[in-house]
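Table S5 (text form). Sequence records supplied for joint modeling of the two-component complex.
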Amino acid sequence: MSDKVVLYYFNGRGKMESIRWLLAVAGVQFEEVYLTTNEQFQKLVNDGALMFHQVPLVEMDGMKLVQTKAILNYIAGKYNLYGNGLKERVMIDIYAEGARDIMEMIMVLPFTPPEKKQSQLDKIQLKVKDRSLPTYEKALSNSQFLVGNQLSCADVHLFEATLMLEELFPAILSTFPKIQAFQNRMKAIPAINKFLQPGSQRKPPPDEVYVKTVMDVLSHLFK
Amino acid sequence: MSDKVVLYYFNGRGKMESIRWLLAVAGVQFEEVYLTTNEQFQKLVNDGALMFHQVPLVEMDGMKLVQTKAILNYIAGKYNLYGNGLKERVMIDIYAEGARDIMEMIMVLPFTPPEKKQSQLDKIQLKVKDRSLPTYEKALSNSQFLVGNQLSCADVHLFEATLMLEELFPAILSTFPKIQAFQNRMKAIPAINKFLQPGSQRKPPPDEVYVKTVMDVLSHLFK
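The corresponding structure-token record, covering 446 residues in total, follows.
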């Protein structure tokens, strides 16, 4: 099997975007195969590539990896984004999971019925301002990084989550100066700066085409 | 801080039960504080113990740990239930996440409106028979354990998930002989055998009292 890293997903953020972020920060080059039809998806299932009939799928190091968190943990472990020792690791996991909770709430928004969207947005904003952001502000009060003295996957996830939040609520960080400073430090990291430039493999916010494609590819689930 | 391991949760399965399982298999003694009122929950929040205003909370090794998967990863890492090396670990994560997917679908059932319960049950059964169980049957076809040659958290999660499935669908494993044999091997492990006996800290399936208690304790979310 080749040494290439290949990502199989929709041409959009979804569950794959955090994987793209970690790979970019780790400086790992990757190729992407975009799924656009249910036939493509079923072929992957029939080939035995999708253990639980779900994407993301990442081909890497001779393995066909599925389950988002398993893939994220593997990349973090391999590329030194997972701290030192068990006690740092569990704190990284805690902060990483908190950031993923935010991103998962945002991720399902485009699939929320229009009449429920505003109440869902309000719920996210309230939850994040009341619980998540104060926790991260405190964690960053005396520290460059969320855990220990080096960059971890938790920092990358938090950074990604704050950018997603600002797309929805432009002023949401205005009362969180430590998180703003953290954002600026993160933007200055060369691999991150590069990934933020136009033309990178970073994906734009989901639009109607993305939603339609996901529903087409997974049409067996949306019957 | 004391060396005791203390679990803060409802007196029921929910997200804590897999943590109880891993601790039991690791031979770690633990105490439990059962939350029964919203005031108790708010006190934990006000004391700063619940970083994201969520339980489970586990006091362990001088830390106040939150986020279920972070806690599970920590216990697995500390007690040798996480394989050897990154490649075994990612496979353990994949199988563990697949089992957690099953358990999470079952976990929300008691909170599903009665008129939707049967369709949800049908959906779980179909999904599990069609996708998850064949994958585990194959993984166990030539092997004692899901990954490598030793017990991992993935085995413990799968075992727990199959017991939960059998409570809902007694005959569901009838066409999966390898998983049945796996269950029997797991039941013979002394720590597991002990946890399965009456009087252990294992919790029964959720009943109306459990559902009511959860909704009382989290009444600020169910408004």
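Note: Strands of chain B lie at 6-9, 31-34, 57-60, 63-66.
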